[in-house]
Amino acid sequence: MSVHATARIVATPAGLPVLTGEGPLALRRTRATGAGARVTVVGAMSAPLSGDRLAIEADVRDGARLTVDAAAATVALPGRPGPVPAEPAHYDVRLTVGEGAELHWLPEQLISAYGSDLRMRTRVELAATARLVLRDEQILGRHGEGPGTLLTRLTVHRAGRPLLDQELAHGPGAAGGWDGGAVLCGYRAVGQLLLVGQEFEEKPVEPRLLGDTAVLTPLAGPGALVTAVAPDALRLRRVLDEVLRAHQTHGSVSAYR
């Protein structure tokens, strides 16, 4: 039987008036290292499996600061075999960040296990003065296995206008060439780091390579996108974390070398 579950977070400058989880999505308030609140997503059961419909909603109200991370990676798994082909699993993330508010969305990796089929959609609505740090990492297959089918889409609007809209498709259900030299070139870890803030209006970043398998791209708005591929999750995280650390320490992605 498939699982339908939604977790909801509302953050205000005074705290977390709404913090509710369902099914496999348990939410825990954890100690923040800086200003604002911190919430950790804890997997209470195996999910998503074929046919599951999961969602997380986070609303960061005007002037609030929130960090959301996870206790462990999310593993997309195949459902039980049966006479009728299983439906894909769906995982929706809906984020809203108000005026003068800040959201750090830092989940652990999403692992696409062999035989799984997941559609993941992330929608972000930002106010004009909102700040966002969003990390997204996808690992294509567990050790020694091929990936499942994984389709992801990230859509970001700022002040009601499009800032970023991109879609990625991997695995046997995707169009041919996804793992070829022009896309992943055989790598099995792909990720991105999205940074949005008014500092990018004052000083837009210049596009450039970050090592051999990562690139920094300015957005048509106050933001920057780092996209990277790597042989494994550890090396992918290292690249993204080093860029994020430079941004937090120096206020500029350009500080990363």
TrEMBL record:
Keywords from the UniProt entry: Chaperone, Cytoplasm, Nickel insertion
Location in the cell: Cytoplasm
Record carries keyword Cytoplasm: yes
Subcellular location, principal: cytoplasm
Cellular compartments per GO CC: cytoplasm
Keyword field contains Cytoplasm: yes
GO molecular function: nickel cation binding
Top-level lineage group: Bacteria
Family listed: Belongs to the UreD family.
Subunit structure as annotated in this protein's UniProt entry: UreD, UreF and UreG form a complex that acts as a GTP-hydrolysis-dependent molecular chaperone, activating the urease apoprotein by helping to assemble the nickel containing metallocenter of UreC. The UreE protein probably delivers the nickel.
General function of this protein: Required for maturation of urease via the functional incorporation of the urease nickel metallocenter.
Protein name from the UniProt record: Urease accessory protein UreD
Lineage: Bacteria, Bacillati, Actinomycetota, Actinomycetes, Kitasatosporales
